[in-house]
Amino acid sequence: MIDFELSESIVNSRQMIHMVAEQLMRPISREYDEREHEKPTEFLETMWKVSAGTSFGADREADKKAAASGPKESNLASCVNIEELSWGDAGLYLSIPNPGLGGAAVLAAGTAEQKQRFLAPFKGGEMKWGAMAITEPHCGSDSAALQTTAVRDGDDWVLNGTKIYCTSGLMAAEKSDGFVVVWATVDKTAGRAGIKSFVVPAHTPGMKVIKVENKMGIRASDTAMIVFEDCRIPLDNILGSAEVQTGNEGFKGAMATFDATRPLVAASALGIGRAALDFAREALERAGVKIRYGAAASTLTALERDFMEIESELQAARLLTWRAAWMMDRGKRNNLEASMAKAKAGLAVTRVTQKAVEFLGPLGYSRKLLLEKWMRDAKINDIFEGTQQINMLIVARRILGYSSKDLS
Amino acid sequence: MFDLEMTEDQKLIHDTVASFAKAEIRPIAHDCDESGTIPPGLAEKGFELGLVHSAIPEEQGGYGETRSAVTGAIVAEELAWGDLAIAMHLLTPRLLVYPLLEAGSAQQIAQVLPPFALGHQVATAAVVEPRFDFDTTRFTTTAAAKDGGFVVNGAKCFVPLADESQTILVLAQLDEEPAAFLVPRGAAGVSIGEREKNMGVKALATYEVGFENVQVPASARVGDAAAISRILNRSRIALGALAIGMARAASDYARDYAKERKAFGVAIAQKQAIAFMLAEMAIEIDASRLLLWEAAWMLDQGKEATRECVLAKRYASNACLKITDNAVQVLGGHGYVRDHPVEMWLRNARGFSSFEGMAIV
Ligand SMILES: Cc1cc2nc3c(=O)[nH]c(=O)nc-3n(C[C@H](O)[C@H](O)[C@H](O)COP(=O)(O)OP(=O)(O)OC[C@H]3O[C@@H](n4cnc5c(N)ncnc54)[C@H](O)[C@@H]3O)c2cc1C
Ligand SMILES: Cc1cc2nc3c(=O)[nH]c(=O)nc-3n(C[C@H](O)[C@H](O)[C@H](O)COP(=O)(O)OP(=O)(O)OC[C@H]3O[C@@H](n4cnc5c(N)ncnc54)[C@H](O)[C@@H]3O)c2cc1C
Fold first, then answer.
1. Predicted ipTM of the assembly
2. pTM of the entire structure?
3. Pairing of the two strands B142-146 and B167-174
């Protein structure tokens, strides 16, 4: 039955997480934006204690089984929770110790043994981070063109190449006992079919972080350049089969991770957008400006029009995001819907935050308020996990029934 | 619990209306637009679908089904996928029936509704006023208490099927608040103007209607200001859903065309400039529908939802305009020619910014 009410358990966890966002994140938000590359250790420790063992992304097999045994809503719950954390601070949210995108890849493509081996350590002990390294200096969107190689040598895979823009890469590779999932090709002549993902445990010799980026926003999250030089990992650290299949199946498998993570990234975007929208609404109300929803179109001010527009944009993005998550919870394929949500959310929050700064005039532009920071933070959502254009491309291919050859 | 799955009943209704739109509406849409007429028998077929009487209580001869705004949105979207003007034409009797179900007195319901359960009957509502600053919170058509009843003065436009309707539901300003009145078309002082000539929805016969010192009894008043707000919200849902249905029609058509049409050695859909327009259409249709369903769901829950209804209707109307415009663009010169339906959809789409109260769920 069509129903827009969130379940009680989701509402309750949202309330709890909202308190975390309000009481632990907001007060240090500006500080760790200004002190880029420093870690809010106390906050991270607290988050590690309360959240250790939770993962990011989805376990398809488990989802399918759960879907068969009745309605489940863990993906939707993740979206709601991530929105809340990002309402607090999206950079801090991204820096929370957990398996991250790397964990999502393990969940999506790993064997039961691998899930146990790589993810169990996240249930306790010292703080740990997981990361995922796809992007390279010469290729981002076109991930099939990546150059990093994995060569089999006896009982090892040997990795060589350079990865950039790896979120939490520093923490995952060197500052904790986490891991980095690295995409590499086992056969350059095989194109997409040759691309596989490998789990590289932290501190593996031959893996080195050589740069941590200075960024426009989400500065509390480290973004690392990692070089792999004859980096050896055990044979069974490959996710999925080592075989170079004909066709795209292996690559498609790896790309399926995104169906799980795009709604989560979209959810994070929503949190930033909502922070800006709520703030602008309250500031305007304090100044005596109330948005008149029922008023005749001809009497609306430009500000009211803009406000109503971004408010609906944000809610539209939210509902698209929830739909994509809800489909996963029901075990439905959501490749199209996940890209719709990500494309819409990235663009929507970019507009929402830019408009909110405009509404507040010089106050909005000032670093005394967090609004300008939210605008800087928001933009990344239009870029990572597939840029705006790449997600539009995926949507277009799906609705046209085209392959990546037909439309590129 | 968050859920986007239709009930089995809704699926059945959806499928029935969708096949009706495909088999009975779409094939005649072009000719109806050109001739400005709708074949007389079609409304009877619409009646048989239960578009109007299924919500009439059993005591008055109907099926007594719940008036769900969500289900109403599903139905309106499918009808408008067939054709907007025909959809609005078929839904016109609701303009009187539904407000009475929402807010009518027992006596009004008993008096007015029974014929609507028996067969197709024409009826209408007069909401829009011919002025650029038309405002649903402040009508310029007025009602004033007089001789134990009310006297109505003013002018309305976009009144569908006014010339054939026995009764017109008129929205007017009563002192500081909006009020609704049942006005017989034949009452002294009611004048039905020439049939309007509009840019779009040309098959839908609409009229200007004038009211000059029209005297109605106290018993003609329907509901209160709160009821009118609910009625206008239900109308926003209907109009938003119609916009989505037509946008989907345009998007489907443009998509299929773009896969067939070749330029520079490939299908034009293989060019990103076209493909991205098509992708945006798909996203915005789904976005509009989700916003609209959420607002409709709130109405079904009895929640106050003016903000959500206003925003959802605005969003869907804007999306529809952009989508139909892009659909014309995808067809290029062929889109501008009336052999293809896309230009009609664009002409129709512009109307949603002025349409209020012209359909209801
Ligand atoms: C802060 C941050 C964190 C990140 N975290 C990670 C991470 O954890 N792991 C990881 O692997 N990567 C990460 N990235 C990388 C990110 O995913 C890429 O930046 C992104 O995929 C775009 O790739 P690119 O920067 O190489 O841009 P390019 O691929 O060079 O794109 C440039 C422009 O061209 C457009 N474009 C490209 N191809 C097409 C096409 N076919 N059609 C139309 N337009 C096209 C793009 O949309 C974009 O606008 C991160 C990046 C940043 C900035
Ligand atoms: C009222 C009217 C008067 C006209 N008068 C004249 C006249 O006097 N003389 C005359 O010769 N013609 C005339 N035309 C034709 C007009 O110039 C063409 O319709 C126009 O050039 C577009 O061509 P098309 O309709 O075949 O569209 P198509 O070429 O089929 O284009 C369809 C769509 O695909 C897009 N598209 C095509 N190729 C690409 C590409 N490489 N990349 C991205 N997008 C692409 C187009 O922009 C368009 O959106 C007239 C047309 C009309 C409607």
1. 0.96
2. 0.96
3. parallel
